[in-house]
Amino acid sequence: MYVAVKGGERAIDNAHAWLAEERRGDTSVAELSLVQIREQLALAVNRVMAEGSLFDPDLAALAIKQSRGDLIEAIFLIRAYRTTLPRFGYTLPVDTGAMACDRRISATFKDAPGGQVLGPTFDYTHRLLDFKLAAEGEAAEAPTSAPRTEPTPHITEFLQGEDIIEREPMSEAQPGDLTREPMAFPADRSVRLQSLTRGDEGFILGMAYSTQRGYARNHAFVGELRIGTVAVEMEIPELGFAIKIGEVELTECETVNQFKGSKTVPPQFTRGYGLVFGQSERKSIAMALVDRALRWKELGEDNLGAAAQDEEFVLSHSDNIQATGFLEHIKLPHYVDFQSELELVRKLRREAAEAVEQMAAKEAAE
After folding, report:
1. Closest-CA residue to 293 (of 264, 266, 267, 313)
2. 95-110 b/e with 16+ CB inside 10 Å = b?
3. Can you tell me the distance from the alpha carbon of 220 to that of 212, in angstroms, rounded to the nearest whole number?
4. Distance (Å, rounded) from C-alpha 84 to C-alpha 350?
5. What is the DSSP letter of 38?
6. Is 80 exceeded by the pLDDT of residue 136?
7. pTM score, whole prediction
8. Which has fewest Cβ within 10 Å: 28, 66, 145, 360?
9. CA distance 254 to 259
10. How far apart are the two ends of the chain, measured CA to CA in Å?
C-alpha cells in the first residue's frame, strides 16, 4: 500500500507540473498578465465575481489565469478563497437610484425620464468577426463621455405613481444569508434572489428562455436595465453613523410583467428583479424572468407545472459549483463500487443462464 500511495503522489505531482506547463503555453509568446485579463476580459471577470460572490477584479483575473480560462473552475477558486475571509459585518442596502450609470435603457418608454444611455454594448454590433483586432493595433477612442453622477430615478417609480404596477413587497424580517445558512424550502424571496445571482448563467438563461416559450407564460418587458457604480456604506458603531467604504459596479434589471388582479384589486403589472456584480446584462435579465416565475404562489397564480416555477428544482440545480462537484466526482476512483456492481451483474447472468438450462432440460424431458 505504501508503494501505491507514493506512486499516486508522484503521478499527481507530475500532473500538476504538466498542468502548469500547459497553462503557460508557448514560452515564446508573452505571458498574459493579470492587468490584461482584468482590463480586456472584463465580462469574464464580472461573471467570476458574480457567481463567486466576491467583488474583487484582481482576484477574479488571477482565478481565470490559474484555471486556464475555465470560468467554472475560476468561480470555484474564488468561492474557496472567500470562505477563508473573516466577516466584519454587513453593509447597508445599496441605493441603485443613486447609481452613476454607464448604461441605462428602457424597453417600455422611449422618452424615459432621465434619458437613455446606450453605453458600451454589443446590442448594435453586426456580430461579424473584426479582423482588425487580430492586427493588435490601438483601438479607436470613443467620444469623451462621463457616467451620470446625478440620481437617476427608476422607471417603475413612474408606473407606481399611477398605481398600475404592484408595489415592491416589503418585509420587516431580516434577509437570510445563503453563505451562512443552508438552503431550506420554501425559501423567501431574499434567499431566492441570492441563489439566482450566484447561480450558473447558462442554467438561469435556460430557465428564463423556457418561461418566454410558454413554460410559465412569463412574457415580460424590460422596464429598465442599468449598469454603473454605487457607493457601499457601512455603519461604524464607534462613530454612530455610516461611512462610504468603497464602490461596486452592478447591473440591475427590473421587468414589467403580466397583470394580476382580483375582485377587489384592479389589474396591475407585476415585477421581476435581477441584480448582479459587474456588467452582466444577460444574467440580470434572465434572473428577473426566473424571479417572476418563482413568485407564482405569492401572486395567487396557478402552477402550470413549468420547471421555472419549481423553486426546489431551480434553486437546487442552479449552483454550478455544486453541480460540477457532483458531476466530476465520478471521474475519481470507484473501483470497489464498480467491482460490487460487476459481481452482481455476473451473478444475475449466471442465474439467468442456469434458469434457461433448467427450462431447456425440463422441455427435453417432457
Report:
1. 313
2. ebeebbbbbbbbebee
3. 8
4. 54
5. H
6. no
7. 0.87
8. 28
9. 15
10. 57
